[in-house]
Amino acid sequence: MTQRPRPLMIGATAADPKRAVFIWNAIRKYFNEAGLETEYAL
How many whole angstroms separate alpha carbon 8 and alpha carbon 34? Predict the structure, then answer.
C-alpha cells in the first residue's frame, strides 16, 4: 500500500476570522491545484 504524504500545515493568526477564512481557502485552493496539499489552522 502506498502511503500518502501528510498535508503541509500552515498556522496563522487573524484579526477578523471571517475574512481570514476566505483568504486561506483561496490560498489552500491555489496550492492544492499546484499539487501541494495544504491545510491551515487559525
Answer: 13
- The predicted pLDDT at position 2 comes to 64
Name residue 11's beta-bridge partners.
41
Range of the domain at 29: 8-41
**Residue 1 pLDDT:** 56
pLDDT of residue 28: 87
Rama region for 4: left / alpha / beta (φ>0; ψ in -120 to 50; rest): beta
Number of domains in the chain: 1
User: Is the dihedral angle over the CA atoms 21, 26, 31, 37 positive or is it negative?
Assistant: positive
Residue 3 lies in a domain: no
